[in-house]
Amino acid sequence: MIINNNIQAAAGIYNRTWSNGGKNSARECARPRAGDEVVLSGNAKTFSTALGKLRAGADSDGVRMDRVEKFTALIESGCYHIDSQKLAESIMNYKF
Predict the structure, then answer these.
(1) 15 sits in which H/E element
(2) Alpha-carbon distance 43 to 48, whole Å?
(3) Mean per-residue pLDDT for 72-92?
(4) What does the DSSP assignment read for 17-77?
(5) Is the pLDDT of residue 20 over 80?
């Protein structure tokens, strides 16, 4: 397959690499490459912030562990029931 009809350039790079034993010269490796840039999306930044908070510990971000433990026990015992109608209304009020 020919990419961009530039087979001569690709062959030149291949030949140059093999002519010096497969190693690039120090001059070629030392050149900075312009235009390379990393850009994180908003979702990635949000995820990174949340992950950082989790790693820092639950107490530092205001998590009330007493409530977490209470609801964990209720869920595990099967005593925690969610009113689906109330949940749906709450989601609708939050989103719209």
Answers:
(1) helix 7-19
(2) 8
(3) 91
(4) HHHTTT---HHHHHSPPTT------HHHHHHHHHHHHHHH-SGGGT--HHHHHHHHHHHHH
(5) no
Query: How many residues belong to the chain?
Result: 96
Q: Which two tokens stand for residue 65?
A: 């562990």
Q: How far apart are CA 62 and CA 54, in angstroms?
A: 11
Tokens of 77: 């015992």
Q: What region, left, alpha or beta, does residue 82 occupy, with left being phi > 0 and alpha being psi -120 to 50 degrees?
A: beta
Residue 14: pLDDT band by 50, 70, 90 thresholds?
low
Token pair belonging to 9 = 């350039």
The CA distances from residue 51 to 23, 47, 94, in Å, are: 40, 6, 24
- Structural tokens at position 92: 């609708």
d(CA 46, CA 9) in angstroms, rounded, equals 42
